[in-house]
Amino acid sequence: MKYRLEHDSIGDLEVPLNALYGIQTRRAVLNFPISELRQHTSFIFSIVQIKKAAARFHQKVGWLDSKKATQIIRAADEILLKYQWLDHFVVDVYQAGAGTSCNMNVNEVLANRAIELLGGKRGQYHLIHPNDHVNMGQSTNDVIPTAMRLSTLALLSQFIPTLQKLSQTFLKKSNEFKRVYKSGRTHLQDAAPVTLGQEFAAYAESLKNHVQRIIQAQKDLFNLGIGGTAVGTGLNTHPDYRQHMVKFLSEQTKFAFHVHPNTFEAMQSMAPFVQVSNAIRNLTLDLIRIGNDLRLMTSGPTTGFEEIILPALQPGSSIMPGKVNPSMVECLNMVGFQVLGHDATIAMASQAGQLELNVMMPVLSYNLLQEISILTNLIKVFDEKCVQGIQANVHRCLEYAEKSVSIATALNPVIGYEKAAEVVKSALKERKTIKQIVLERQILKEEQYQQVVQLQKLVDPLNKSFKTLKKK
Questions:
Q1: Residues 125 and 170 occupy one common structural domain
Q2: Three-state SS letters, 305-367
Q3: Is there a single domain that holds both residue 362 and residue 455?
Q4: What is the pLDDT of residues 46-93, one digit of tens each?
Q5: Which residues are catalytic?
Q6: Considering the entire predicted model, what is its pTM?
Q7: pLDDT tens figures, 94-120
Q8: Does a structural domain hold residue 248?
Q9: Degrees (nearest 5) of the Cα angle 179, 183, 184?
């Protein structure tokens, strides 16, 4: 490999000749060969958006030469609009604190590409300098938390509609299954009858509520602390910088941003990101719960519940012929566990800040964007390849509903709790149905029993169209 020699405040270092990045990025690559993980593309794009907005502003107020600014903006657009040069963002997720290496990686790539657009060669920083020109008016300390806000909102704008769609799919299924009677279960024991549709409607409502919680949780992300620079004071910025940066970033991203009321707090506290992650964690817990329900309901087919049939996606065993597993639900659980791990890392990173800065931002950002990204992808395929294709085993559900001893609950208002409990004990002991015991012992006549124990009435007891049998 051929190299060029670059210089920084530490000394000289060789940089790959073809690299758009420069010496500070090279130092980070050599210092932190940790994981081979890179920051999310959305995060890189967000830093580039900030550099573009800064170049626009400094050109406007005359702080940056028009030729330099034009080429920095042009280089930024090559990344943002054409997705070029992404393989030059090479800093590991686990790096020096605050994200200085990440910020400099973007500064150097934009500087070198702008130099080329001016007709120069990579590394000729007298033409356009990564710090003096691309990073003008900025610090890693206000750029990174701002980029975190931009990138999180960008991913949430894809995540929220995906989650809404899954909620709607469950709602459609609830209408499809509204006449599928089955035994309810509490404590994993037989309970009063419900419909499969009622269960799926509850799943839909749960996800709908989580959508609203996430929308509420993201609101603080619209306040940008850009312009605080090193410690929050705004050192080395133009008096109009903050307002115009927020305006330009709003134009460029189509989000309605506001100037943060306190630039110090914006770089000290990671609470807005923890708030979003908390909302996603709570959603994830319910997704895992729903997935576990589906796994139970599809268990079998001959020795389990077999109340629903999930789409067959792939063979379930390398040795047992014909076996089909709930693969997509299992994937949901694994993604869910990973998201919970990301959330735990975010919480630890949030509390680790000191004084004017939280230096754990790189790992916090990576984990937040990663959890949103993998959960978005999971929800999409879970909806399309699992939930949309769920079928009800109507006969098995009805069989469970009619055999459940908890049907005796409907007898309480007519024969009393204690007598109904005796009926249940007898039914279990003699391996008979509740109906058989009630009729054999002449507790009720068949006509009376049918009036009391109607499945439609049991799953919708508040419907006034049903007649009530008075207690003996």
A1: no
A2: CCCEECCCCCECCCCCCCCECCHHHHHHHHHHHHHHHHHHHHHHHHCCCECCECCCHHHHHHH
A3: no
A4: 999 999 999 999 999 999 999 999 999 999 999 999 999 999 999 999
A5: 317
A6: 0.94
A7: 999 999 999 999 999 999 999 999 999
A8: no
A9: 105
